[in-house]
Amino acid sequence: MTSTAHAPAPAITLTIAGSEATGGAGAQADLKTFQQLGTYGIVALTCIVSFDPQDNWNHRFVPVEPHVIADQLEATQTCYEGQLETVKLGMMGSPATIDTVATALKGQAWKNVVLDPVLICKGQEPGHALDTDQALKANLLPLATFVTPNHFEAEQLSGLTITDEASLIEAAKSIHEASGAAVLAKGGVRLAGSEAIDVFYDGETLEVLRAEKIGEVAVSGAGCSLAAAVTAELAKGATPLEAARTAKEFVTEGIRHRVASAAPFDALWQGGK
Ligand code: PXL
């Protein structure tokens, strides 16, 4: 159908991500970020996560069947053929999901593939992540143009131990060498000091992005919103470095204006800026 709208059409941004029912993280955070930054957000859902208040807020994880993920992507990619150039990859949760998503992604050309290499959610045991880690490295990392690992994910992807700014820089460089993607490696509250530092490296430019730490406790949705903000900015035409800077500011303000939660982590508010 042809549109008669007069305003310029918004850039379309797809997130392939999980639902986190409380709205802090996952697809909910991505969509709110896209809307706030002026892109037209769409979702293909990979899994449903429901925290369990009766079991120490552990994560109940239900994967979406691979063929249902493939159906969603078929619908989306066909609807917006020729307009859909930017995708964000969030929580996959299993090697089967990663295979399905990689196959769909290879069905078209992309300008921007932003990979948030979610291995485990905050508070989960790292043991869950190992097979997903291998599949992610083999099948999704090579497709990424921009990758946003947190402290744990940067250690997994680089094989390095990250204890300070210098080792975060080494990890960012190593992940760039392995993938060719622009890297924004996040120190967050895991690195000591009064600043939250993220390292941007794209093979040419190295920049350490700094913001004053707002408390020492992580906030739910910070990683998802950061990668989603990068995605929106890239879709609007920003360079990777500009996108990283804008995303960092967006997340800092979202953390400052967080929403209180009875779960162990408060939730970032995308309307904070
Ligand atoms: O913050 C990582 C994350 C991403 N996606 C989903 C999640 C979480 C953490 O809870 O549930 C769906």
From TrEMBL:
Residue ranges of domain Pyridoxamine kinase/Phosphomethylpyrimidine kinase in the record: 22-259
SUPFAM superfamilies per UniProt: Ribokinase-like
Biological process according to GO: thiamine biosynthetic process
Enzyme class: transferase
UniProt GO MF annotations: ATP binding; hydroxymethylpyrimidine kinase activity; metal ion binding; phosphomethylpyrimidine kinase activity; pyridoxal kinase activity
Pfam families, sorted: Phos_pyr_kin (PF08543)
Keyword annotations from UniProtKB, A to Z: ATP-binding, Kinase, Magnesium, Metal-binding, Nucleotide-binding, Transferase
Record bears the keyword Kinase: yes
Domain of life of the native organism: Bacteria
Record-linked InterPro entries: HMP/HMP-P_kinase_dom (IPR004399), PM/HMP-P_kinase-1 (IPR013749), Ribokinase-like (IPR029056)
GO cellular component: cytosol
Reactions accelerated catalytically: pyridoxal + ATP = pyridoxal 5'-phosphate + ADP + H(+)
Protein family: Belongs to the ThiD family.
Record's protein name: pyridoxal kinase
